[in-house]
Design brief:
2 copies of one chain form a homodimer.
Chain A lengths: L1 E9 L6 H12 L5 E14 L4 H16 L5 E10 L2
Antiparallel strand pairs in A: 1-2, 1-3
């Protein structure tokens, strides 16, 4: 069994309305030193596989087929660890 | 100027409907070896501050006041780096 942690963020230059909204809210709370906020997703997947390489390949396919929108998002596998 | 990367995830035991929906979708795509999916948020904040300690304190306050719902979520500051 393997546990993967995947980071999915907007590509540079893509507008992040949620990030802008959070930035405004933080300013209203008095955190005026905040210059920019970007919000992405963190996906943790538990997957049974024979080898780490097979697990990683499946994870990449999942990102490309479903998890990340290739037009506006990019993904990065932050970690892939074997668990009991 | 400092850049913080914050991970916000559901506490253990809290139902993750989005994660369950993604797991089902992955199974439909043929990724039947997926056992569990948990989805969290990744917040990147750019903040101007005199010291790293001050930046970290402000980041923690932002998490506790706005970014993370203390009832069902937990946060972790993954990184805090000075940038030009």
């Amino acid at each position: 069994m393997y546990k993967a942690k995947i980071q999915i963020t907007f590509k540079n230059g893509v507008l992040d309305p949620q990030g802008s909204a959070v930035k405004q809210a933080l300013h209203h709370l008095g955190f005026v030193s905040v210059k920019d906020v970007r919000i992405g997703r963190l996906v943790e997947i538990l997957i049974s596989s024979q080898t780490p390489l097979d697990a990683e390949n499946q994870i990449k396919q999942m990102c490309e087929q479903l998890l990340a929108n290739p037009v506006i998002e990019e993904y990065r596998v932050l970690s892939l660890e074997e668990i009991e």
